[in-house]
Amino acid sequence: MGLTKRQADLFAFIKSELDRDMPAPSYTEMAGHLRLTSLSGINRLVKGLETRGLIRRIAGCARSITIVPEGPKPGTITVALPEYTYRRAEACAAAQGLPVSELVAALILDATRPRPGTAATDPHSRGQPVSLSNAPRSPQGVAHFATKDVP
Predict the structure, then answer these.
(1) Three-state secondary structure call for residue 14
(2) Looking at the structure, do residues 76 and 33 belong to the same domain, yes or no?
(3) Last residue of one domain, picked from the residues 67, 82, 102
(4) At what angle do helices 27-34 and 5-19 cross, to 10 degrees?
(5) How far apart are CA 96 and CA 88, in angstroms?
């Protein structure tokens, strides 16, 4: 996360107050907790936390700080699959003894891998935009993935 000690202390204080169902602390309360005399120093720390995506606040609204819920970690993607497709992937993963997420990730990577002779791997493509997705698509634009093991 790369927080300074004061930012980490302030974030922990804000989080503890909100976890106790208290309103977000005021700048004066934050300054008192960190033993700072300057509210501009608190403002700088709060802006730093907001820039890092840890908190959100509404400008001009007192005590409007909220903690941003943790999302996916960097390098992860969220995939929405139709229920039927998910059930088929779940059955296939169970048969292979894999977590569903690993199977779906493998299928997505396989479907987006450039194939030999396609423009993506052709040295003569000269930087033209190339679609890497070779997955068949339904009329609604949802990619369908299947393996030979799916019943």
Answers:
(1) helix
(2) no
(3) 67
(4) 120
(5) 12
* Residue 97 backbone class (left: φ over 0; alpha: ψ -120 to 50; beta: rest): left
- Residue 137's beta-bridge partner residues? 143
Is residue 92 within 8 A of residue 85, CB to CB? The reply is no
In the numeric block, the tokens 């299928």 are attached to 107
Q: What angle do CA 64, 57, 77 make, to 5 degrees?
A: 130
Q: Count structural domains, the chain.
A: 2
Nearest Cα neighbor of 106 from 72, 49, 132, 145 is 145
Is pTM, for the whole model, over 0.85? Answer: no
DSSP string computed for 83-136: HHHHHHHHHHHHHHT--HHHHHHHHHHHHHSPPTTSTTT-GGGTT---------
Domain assignment of residue 51, given as a range: 5-67
**Whether residue 100 is found in the same domain as residue 26:** no
Alpha carbons 56 and 71: distance in angstroms, whole number = 14
pLDDT tens digits, residue range 76-116? 667 777 777 778 878 888 888 888 878 777 777 777 777 66
Residues 130 and 110 placed together within one structural domain of the fold: yes
